[in-house]
Design a protein that fits this description.
The protein is mostly helical. The protein has one domain (about 20-85). The protein has 4 helices and no strands. α3 packs antiparallel against α4 (about 70-85). The radius of gyration is 16 Å and the shape is extended. The mean pLDDT is about 85.
Length: about 90
Amino acid sequence: MGIVVELDTYRAGRTPATPATVDVVRRLERAVERLESAVGPLNHPRSGSLEPELESELLAILGAIAMEMLESATARTERLVERLARTGV
């Protein structure tokens, strides 16, 4: 069976984020907002899917976030946004 997590207890036991971490998270949030705007029109109208290369990159970003590799996720997201902008998306 699963474990019930008391959020207040969990939050109290966490170490506060450093200013550097807060900065990376803000950069990631901005990059994801730009990415959402760029990727939306790329969905295939019939299948709703993305190009395999783009989908792989998005999965890599999600994996980096899941592993708390925020700097890596941010850099990947920013690079992807730049690449999509260069291709005229």
